[in-house]
Design goal:
The complex is a heterodimer. Chain A is built from five helices and four strands. By secondary structure, chain A is an alpha+beta fold. Chain A folds into two domains: 59 residues, Arc Repressor Mutant, subunit A (Orthogonal Bundle); 76 residues, Alpha-Beta Plaits (2-Layer Sandwich), CATH 3.30.70.920. Classes of the chains: A alpha+beta, B mainly alpha.
Chain lengths: 176, 110
């Protein structure tokens, strides 16, 4: 059962559990307990509480496409839109499988930022030319192909120190 | 393809969208041969180079407008390895000439 709307404050242990689960969501309560020097029953209760409050939204899988021989490239697309059509553009864009993440941003101009994947540059271009540019309200598109990922941060609490031996600097908080 | 079909305005999803490079749409598009001729004069020649040497123009003219003859003429321009304003002028003249031929023929036939 999910409890919505009521906000709860997380303490240091909650944050440590969240961090551990982001690194490996399949670890058992006992393993997490050993890692954090806490009883597995405590871990169980804390995780249940965070699931019920919707703080833990889901457990997911990160697929290494290269390992299965799927060559692909990732690009970040910035779309400048007519303000009246921005929400519609974002909604339509979200329907495409090639768009992994879609955000709207209020800067000087109204922007939509999307992370997209494609097999190669030709397919990326075809997707943008045939599916994105024709959307009503799209004024211009700027696309950058990502050549190297330097970091993919995990969400960490305000007083969180990364475990020893792990190279973690200040964590990026990814909120919604 | 009948003349009136080549000269028609196509749906926005079938229009030609001008890019400066892979994924970078410059905000100009053409939904008919007439609009296409006009845009050739307006856009930066770099965009024309990008599309000409990918074969995008001849593909769109052939597959969407249905004008295989014009597509062949554009392909010849590609083989001449034109760039910059020279390309812009030559491409414009080629498309405009064809547009005028079709328009005159169409007007006389109705």
């Amino acid at each position: 059962m999910k409890i919505k709307k009521r906000r709860i404050a997380l303490d240091d242990l909650d944050w440590k559990i969240l961090y551990a689960l982001q690194e490996n969501a399949r670890q058992t309560y006992s393993e997490t307990g050993r890692l954090l020097n806490v009883a597995h029953t405590t871990i169980y209760e804390r995780i249940k509480k965070m699931e019920e409050h919707g703080i833990i939204k889901k457990y997911t899988t990160v697929v290494d496409l290269e390992k299965i021989g799927m060559k692909h490239l990732t690009a970040v697309m910035t779309i400048i839109t007519d303000p009246k059509e921005s929400e519609n553009v974002a909604e339509k864009l979200s329907e495409f499988n090639d768009a992994l993440e879609v955000y709207t941003s209020l800067s000087e101009e109204l922007l939509i930022i999307a992370k997209v994947v494609a097999e190669n540059q030709d397919k990326l271009h075809s997707f943008i030319a045939q599916s994105v540019a024709p959307l009503p309200g799209v004024l211009r598109i700027r696309t950058s192909i990502i050549t190297k990922k330097h970091k993919e941060g995990l969400l960490a609490g305000p007083n969180f120190n990364a475990p020893k031996g792990k190279r973690r600097e200040k964590q990026i908080a990814v909120g919604e | 393809m009948p003349t009136h079909k080549i000269l028609r305005k196509v749906l926005r999803e079938k229009a030609f969208y001008f890019f400066s490079s892979i994924g970078n749409y410059i905000g100009e598009n053409a939904a008919s041969l007439e609009e296409f001729a006009g845009k050739i004069r307006e856009v930066n020649p770099k965009s024309l180079e990008f599309h000409l040497y990918r074969g995008d123009f001849e593909k769109w003219v052939d597959e969407v407008l249905g004008d295989a003859g014009l597509a062949e003429k554009i392909k010849e321009l590609r083989n001449q390895k034109l760039i910059g304003e020279n390309l812009q002028d030559q491409l414009y003249q080629t498309v405009l000439k064809r547009y005028n031929e079709l328009k005159t023929g169409f007007t006389q036939s109705v």
